[in-house]
Design goal:
Helix content: 40-55%
Strand order of the largest sheet: 7-8-12-11-9-10
Shape: globular
Oligomer: single chain
Number of strands: 12
Largest sheet: 6 strands, mixed
Strand content: 15-25%
Length: about 400
């Protein structure tokens, strides 16, 4: 076993006691989203066979071009951050991230970096990753496109031409080789800090992440005989249940009716300048991801941008933006019934209850932040239930 952890953590203690092959301690002064070039990022890269010397060389070169001895006008990171902040002031807040197939996972890292760094004090850039509806919504919704391209990618120009024709601002970043991703880590970290400074916020804290954690802890304390207490549903229909805060100001716009009507009315709350955040708390099988793509397309036809956040992973990525960023999000939280109960050692609950408590904790935190949020429990048959929601939205 190999451990990557903070000094003094329970995992670090266990690793020493059980003589793990290696323990890598992460630096206390580096926040998680800025840690790609610490052991958190470099150890997995080494295990994947990456050329760490080449990655580090590209990172050093980017850092040198962005250092205090050079001109800010020539710093790639400062230029990118300044452009994103300036475009945000002009209404282009939805940063749609495209990438070459070989760099397909990179936008997910950027998503966390810019959402958690800039999404606070009512400000923030809204990252949009893997948008299946870009073709029908790109001309609306205040988008700026950032395309990260591996040199020689034959499809890069076609992707950029398609979005350029719709009038969206486009920023193109060309990466000369896979190892040059080391430089892109530096570019984007400086860009996030620069954009945060220009937006007037602190890019290095995450004040709203703790709220969901604390509420999850309190919910877990209510477990009795391994079960969470039942919740009163606003409506139930054919194995699906919907939950909302009926005393919230936005709920007065919803009709009293079936679950299908409730979902349709809720999604219709979003105007073209809004984004609909789909918060999915269930294992992402290929069939379910395809259904979520269909759901995003159906919502995009109404005008707003959509984002997809997989719970509970997003609690440490876009969760900060959802609660602390601009009040333009409309959140559809989707949960499901666990297929089997697996107990968490030393506790009264299982992983299914933990998962549900994390969803409920975030649900309560969103309500506390006065964000519109509707939770729909999809039951056992998730893909079928998603198709039903798609039909309801139309």
């Amino acid at each position: 076993f190999i451990a990557l952890t903070d000094a003094g953590s329970l995992l670090e203690i266990e690793a020493r006691q059980k003589s793990f092959r290696q323990t890598f301690e992460t630096p206390e002064t580096v926040g998680g989203r800025f840690s790609a070039l610490t052991s958190f990022g470099l150890v997995p890269m080494a295990l994947l066979g990456a050329d760490l010397d080449a990655v580090a060389d590209h990172a050093r070169a980017m850092l040198a071009s962005s250092g205090p001895d050079g001109s800010a006008n020539l710093s790639p990171g400062v230029k990118l951050g300044t452009a994103l902040a300036s475009l945000s002031d002009q209404g282009y807040r939805h940063v749609t991230l495209l990438a070459s197939e070989a760099l397909g996972a990179f936008p997910l890292w950027i998503e966390q970096l810019i959402a958690e760094s800039t999404g606070k004090d009512g400000q923030g850039l809204i990252p949009v990753v893997s948008d299946p509806a870009l073709d029908i919504s790109r001309a609306k919704s205040g988008r700026v496109i950032v395309s990260t391209e591996l040199a020689g990618d034959p499809s890069a120009q076609a992707r950029v031409d398609a979005v350029s024709a719709a009038g969206c601002p486009v920023i193109r970043l060309v990466v000369p080789s896979p190892e040059a991703i080391g430089g892109e880590f530096i570019r984007w970290q400086i860009a996030a800090a620069t954009a945060g400074a220009l937006l007037g916020i602190n890019p290095f804290d995450e004040p709203d992440v703790r709220a969901s954690k604390e509420k999850t802890g309190r919910i877990l304390e209510t477990i009795s005989e391994g079960r969470l207490p039942d919740e009163p549903a606003a409506t139930r229909q054919d194995g699906l249940s919907a939950y909302l805060r009926t005393d919230a100001a936005w709920s007065s716009a919803l009709s009293n009716g079936t679950l299908d009507v409730l979902v349709s009315d809720f999604v219709s709350l979003a105007r073209p300048e809004n984004y609909v955040g789909i918060l999915a708390y269930f294992p992402p099988t290929p069939e379910r991801l395809a259904a979520l793509d269909r759901l995003r397309r159906s919502i995009a036809r109404l005008g707003p941008v959509t984002t997809l956040a997989q719970g509970p992973r997003y609690l440490h990525s876009t969760g900060q933006l959802h609660k602390g960023g601009p009040d333009t999000g409309v959140f559809l939280m989707l949960t499901a019934d666990p297929s089997a109960r697996i107990g968490v050692p030393g506790t009264e609950y299982g992983f299914g209850e933990l998962h549900r408590a994390q969803a409920l904790g975030d649900y309560e935190a969103l309500l506390e932040a006065e964000r519109p949020v509707l939770r729909v429990n999809l039951g056992w048959y998730v893909t079928d239930a998603l198709d039903r929601l798609i039909a309801a939205i139309g």
